[in-house]
Amino acid sequence: MEEKYMSKLSPTVDFWAGVYLVIVAIVSIIGNGAVLVSAGRRFSLLKSPELLTVNLAVTDIGMALSMYPLSIASAFNHAWVGGDSSCLYYGLMGMIFSVTSIVTIAVMGMIRFLVTGDPPQTGVKFQRPTIRILISGIWLYAGLWAAFPLLGWGSYGPEPFGLACSVDWTGYGESLSHATFIAALSVLCTFIPSVCILFTYFGIAWKLHRAYQAIQTQDFQYGNIEKKITLMAVMISMGFLIAWTPYVAVSFWSMHHAHSQDELSPFVTLLPCLFAKSSTAYNPFIYFFFQRSTRREQNGGRKQALGDFLCCGCKTRAATREIKLTTDCNGNGTDETMVD
Fold this sequence. Notes:
With 340 residues, this protein is mostly helical. It has a single domain (3-327), classed as Rhopdopsin 7-helix transmembrane proteins (Up-down Bundle), CATH 1.20.1070.10. Helices cover 77% and strands 2% of the residues. The chain has ten helices and two strands; from the N terminus they run αααααββααααα. It has helices at residues 11-41, 50-66, 68-77, 83-115, 128-147, 176-210, 212-217, 220-256, 266-277, 279-339; strands at residues 156-158, 165-167. A two-stranded antiparallel sheet has the order 1-2. A hairpin with a 6-residue loop joins strand 1 and strand 2 (165-167). The longest helix has 61 residues, at 279-339. It is globular and about 55 Å long. The N and C termini lie far apart (122 Å). The model is unreliable at 300-319 and 332-340 (pLDDT under 50).
């Protein structure tokens, strides 16, 4: 076993890291699997932008199924399992799913910004074919970036703690190929999507603030549903950024301190990686919470509409009976006069 694939952590830390990853993997697979089953059952009822949430569930469960077993096995083995080939596979899968996730969330933010109207029901409408094209483009974009290291631009390598693989951040100062790849990846797949997420949701918050009175007075139910769907997207996006920011910070530190990795404890480099993996576990809970809340809102709106309809029918029938009685009374009065 090469030294770079040996764990830099103690056996105890490796064991508990493996236990943590088992729990995260189980929760991720069950939670995101439930999201996909639920979406499949009510597929015809899904709003077009909700397909992006489904796509996010696909990336989360894909990451849990294709990557976590290797990390778990390596943690319990106290060394990376499989050598160069499995490291290359793990880095490739990590690149595909992580880029797909952040770009999906960025696109979700832009679409929510355009869909959120001021006042309600004046936003841009997206059809399913458009969303499908966007999702296909996201996967192609992620696949392209994942393939670049295989073609010689950049490379994959083990993490400093030895139990996972990703982009070889320490190669930033070693060659022009590594430096340009990492710089382009950082800007196009991290910085720009993150800025897009932040600005779109600030824009949505401003739109909703301006439309608050219109939502209350014009279409309360529609406005509430739109706000809840938007809040769900905000929570998923902010959760993703919070989970991955420490990992990005440590990776950027590794870029500029390639020859002084010993200054940062392997345990410190492990924690952001474990924290980032948690993002695949909590998204389903956010989705189901807001799905249930939105469904109650829609059912309440339907009941109110049905009540209004029945009430309107009662009023119509009462008014009809009143007119009939009035007509009958007038007719009887005329007859009595004629008899006299």
